[in-house]
Amino acid sequence: MSNINLLPWREASKQRQKRIFLSILGVAAVVSISLVLLVDFVFQQALQNQEQRNQYLQSEITLLDARIGEINKLKKRRSDLIERMRLIDQLQQSRNQAVHLYNDLPSLVTNGVYLDSLALQNGQVDVVGKTEAHSRVANMMRMIDKSGWLGQTSISSIFVSSDKTLALSEFSMMFKVLNQDLLTKPNPQEKK
């Protein structure tokens, strides 16, 4: 007798195709879920590595800020020390100023000019005196300007004294100490 298949072969074929499709669908779902989890894991690792780098950079920035603060303190201290040294140097130079002025004064004051008072303050010298002639004061001013370390002479006033015994004119003038460096160097006239 011939074999007759009584089973519905088309339904069996559909069931087999459905099982294959569902298994392929399951495998695809498992593969896509695992890919998503793998990508998520990779991104989480990259994010964690970046956060660690950021923390390292922040700690290094904090250390560098502290070092920069120390450097700024050292710069401030250095500038304070330089300012102190400049002030000390200025005081050293100015302490000889009066002595140098008094040493040079006899060569600067011409005959016929008599000084009553001399005041040295902040590099400015105020002179009050008497003279026999106006030209002698002018000559004295020229000599002061030629001295090399004194200059900017200006006369405040010159007038005839009320004293009739001697015909002397009273004058008031001022000049400035221009070149502080010459105070510390020896005078070439003193070597002779």
Q: Could you characterize what this model shows?
A:
There is one protein chain. With 192 residues, this protein is of the alpha+beta class. The protein has a domain at 96-184: Gyrase A, domain 2. The chain is 60% helix and 19% strand. It has helices spanning 9-95, 97-108, 134-146, 181-184, and strands spanning 113-121, 124-131, 150-160, 169-177. A hairpin with a 2-residue loop joins β1 and β2 (124-131). The protein is rod-shaped, with a radius of gyration of 51 Å. The N and C termini lie far apart (157 Å).
Highlighted features:
single chain; 192 residues; alpha+beta; Gyrase A, domain 2; 4-stranded antiparallel β-sheet; 4 strands; 19% strand
Compact summary:
This protein is of the alpha+beta class and 192 residues long.
Remind me, CATH topology of the domain at 96-184?
Gyrase A, domain 2
Low-confidence stretches: 182-188
Q: Strand tally, please?
A: 4
Number of continuous helical runs: 4
Main beta sheet: strand number and arrangement?
Answer: 4 strands, antiparallel
Radius of gyration: 51 Å
CATH class of the domain at 96-184: Alpha Beta
Q: Biggest sheet, strands in spatial order?
A: 1-2-4-3
Q: Can you identify the CATH superfamily of the domain at 96-184?
A: General secretion pathway protein M, EpsM
Please, what is the oligomeric state? single chain
